[in-house]
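Notes for week 9. Today we move from apo structures to complexes. The key idea is that a small molecule is not decoration. When we ask for a structure prediction with 2-acetamido-2-deoxy-beta-D-glucopyranose present, the ligand SMILES becomes part of the input, just like the chain. The input block below holds both the sequence and the ligand string. Read it once before you look at the output, and try to guess where the molecule might sit.
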Amino acid sequence: MRLFSTLCSLALAASSLALPTSDHVVHERRTTTPARWQKTRRVTGTEHVLVRIGLTQSNLENAYEYLMNVSDSVSPNYGKFWTADEVANTFAPSNETVAAVRNWLVGAGVAESRLAQTKNQGWIVFGASAKEAESLLHTKYYHYTDKISGTKAIAAEEYRVPQHVQQHIDFVKPGVLLPLTSKGPSAKHTSKSRPLGKTSVNASSLATCDEVITPACVAALYKIPHASANVSANNSLGIFEEGDYYAQEDLNLFFRNFTPYIPQGTHPKPAFIDGAEAPVNTSDAGAESDLDFQLAYPIVYPQTITLYQTDDLNYASGEIETDGFFNTFLDAVDGSYCTYCAYGECGDSPTLDPVYPDNYTDGYKGQLMCGVYKPTNVVSVSYGGQEYDLPAYYQQRQCNEFLKLGLQGTSILFASGDDGVAGPPGDDSDNGCLGNGTIFSPAFPNSCPYVTNVGATKLYPNHTIADGESAVVDPIGHPYSIAFSSGGGFSNIYPIPDYQASAVAEYFTKHNPPYPYYEGNASFGQNGGIYNRLGRGYPDVAANGDNIAEFNAGEFILEGGTSASTPIFSSIINRIIERRIAVGKGPLGFLNPVLYRHPGALNDITNGSNPGCGTEGFYTAPGWDPVSGLGTPNFPKLLDVFLNLP
Ligand SMILES: *[C@@H]1O[C@H](CO)[C@@H](O)[C@H](O)[C@H]1NC(C)=O
Ligand SMILES: *[C@@H]1O[C@H](CO)[C@@H](O)[C@H](O)[C@H]1NC(C)=O
Ligand SMILES: *[C@@H]1O[C@H](CO)[C@@H](O)[C@H](O)[C@H]1NC(C)=O
Ligand SMILES: *[C@@H]1O[C@H](CO)[C@@H](O)[C@H](O)[C@H]1NC(C)=O
Ligand SMILES: *[C@@H]1O[C@H](CO)[C@@H](O)[C@H](O)[C@H]1NC(C)=O
Ligand SMILES: *[C@@H]1O[C@H](CO)[C@@H](O)[C@H](O)[C@H]1NC(C)=O
Ligand SMILES: *[C@@H]1O[C@H](CO)[C@@H](O)[C@H](O)[C@H]1NC(C)=O
Ligand SMILES: *[C@@H]1O[C@H](CO)[C@@H](O)[C@H](O)[C@H]1NC(C)=O
Ligand SMILES: *[C@@H]1O[C@H](CO)[C@@H](O)[C@H](O)[C@H]1NC(C)=O
Ligand SMILES: *[C@@H]1O[C@H](CO)[C@@H](O)[C@H](O)[C@H]1NC(C)=O
Ligand SMILES: *[C@@H]1O[C@H](CO)[C@@H](O)[C@H](O)[C@H]1NC(C)=O
């Protein structure tokens, strides 16, 4: 995997530029400075700087192999997931690395007692005068100001470290990197809805599934049997929400109308993060949260649902704007992530992620929550943005964490987006596309190779369940006020992972898209190319996401979006794990390696495309395609595949 070698090659390339001054070699040098950052003045010698030395982690180059070792069905170690400690210890810097860096600093006159090391051993920290830090690192520090946000930072144009410790140092801060800034607001997947008035839908009829998708339609589409009355205490379904809140009255209305076997008052178990709270009064209910629970409960009940409601209202509502996403959730389910260093970032980004304690009015005054919840076996996430919104290294650090959660047995599923090959209109450009509005915009964090992405399908009018589904294409006004097509495409950050390589190759060979492309983001847009032929393809799978019955804010509405597809697929995985637990087996972790080996366990979707950027988008095809992935779930077949694995 090239993913993990980026920084190493950066360091090596930089070291070859070293000037022969003492035994120090250039470790990092900045080649270009973003125009928004203005260098103001030299730091004076007496100013205080906090020096943070990110230590090289062990075994990152083996991470993909480790993941496949426990998640690929052909591995003899399938399902032998790691503990959180095993994960932390495997990737922690070696003792040799820690000793080498400490010895260097102590030898250079930094008293041992001044050196602190984070719990996960990721970095060594000490306070110093600028003069001392400059002399340790053979560098000159400057003050910089971000002309747009006013953010201030200290950075150097280059710095050096002794040759014998270079291999042990990932990066130093302050160093050459300026704080992360994003290119625009990161959008969330907002589901689309239209009011219907009073429900007159027959909850047990399958005759109207082409008009309204009810729990009975979902069960029939994917052949989901009734749930067993006896469920495991260790298999609650995880659902992530941010800035959108369920109302109990909406859940009750839904249960009363569609699933009377679910008692009134049934509600998710709270796993609230950094000051988040739920539920809200009916009039404030969010369409996303209500939708997620109304789709998931009918499939998993009597199993429980765990609600990861994230961030205090200031951040969750956007009152304080942050462009990063998802890190505070990851901190809460893996304490080591709070201080995890990778790609030049240690812990969350203070300029992109929420900062706690939140000193603004009514902010959450507690500390950032780290490792307070054990992650559930399955986590369903109907939120995301675009790759273009965030720096690549912010995304890569987070993507590594998804890998680590997979190693520990958690399956994470993301909605693939609702704008086809584009991003949301107005995000990054008028039509949500890159370049001059012609280049496809891959979604974040969907393009991470270690998550499972769910696209959206629908039943067209006058088609029955037996006729099969198509990819969602809904033009403006039909039926929603905004256009909607299933998110899909190819990453500009991550290369095609091995588990997907033959599926993607077959798509290009047999169903070559009619568009010019570029190969690797270094040639972004060259020769008129509008997508990256070498990028990780998504989505991986699909499920229904159109005309979904929902009660929201007391009204009966129809809802659409990959936001709906994701809790459906996640709930089915949860049910399969339930059956595994019943026979003494465990959770499933990262799903993709098995799914791509068993495309026959999914209903192949071959009708439709995912329009965007002035094109019809990619076309569905037999086999995997970047519109509907491998297809929609066939519960009995998926159960058979996963139940037969150890
Ligand atoms: C796979 O995991 C087993 C232990 O579970 C280990 O012995 C083996 O070396 C691993 N193989 C690889 C290729 O990582
Ligand atoms: C590394 O150091 C820690 C603490 O000093 C010690 O517990 C551990 O055994 C050491 N590991 C190795 C491989 O030497
Ligand atoms: C609802 O549909 C079911 C199954 O088709 C049918 O048996 C029942 O009579 C219908 N109920 C009403 C009120 O039409
Ligand atoms: C439920 O499952 C557990 C564990 O498999 C078993 O011990 C228990 O007897 C079951 N209860 C019922 C009511 O079937
Ligand atoms: C849940 O998991 C814990 C530890 O992982 C185990 O001790 C317990 O027996 C499990 N409970 C059930 C009902 O499977
Ligand atoms: C719900 O409404 C009641 C009565 O208007 C009010 O007291 C309460 O604060 C509201 N709760 C929330 C969470 O908005
Ligand atoms: C909160 O803290 C930040 C930086 O720590 C500071 O700039 C800001 O003025 C503070 N806001 C309030 C309301 O105290
Ligand atoms: C965008 O269009 C302008 C004017 O046609 C052209 O000069 C420029 O090179 C284009 N940029 C890209 C990235 O295609
Ligand atoms: C569906 O079938 C009905 C009855 O045959 C017909 O009136 C209607 O136009 C059809 N709708 C579509 C979208 O084909
Ligand atoms: C891809 O290349 C374009 C053009 O150089 C650049 O704007 C963008 O940031 C790059 N994206 C990534 C993920 O590196
Ligand atoms: C295929 O998709 C088109 C729209 O792209 C739709 O009109 C047609 O009904 C679909 N066919 C089937 C069999 O669903």
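The pocket of 2-acetamido-2-deoxy-beta-D-glucopyranose (ligand 9) is lined by residues 461-462 (CB under 6 Å).
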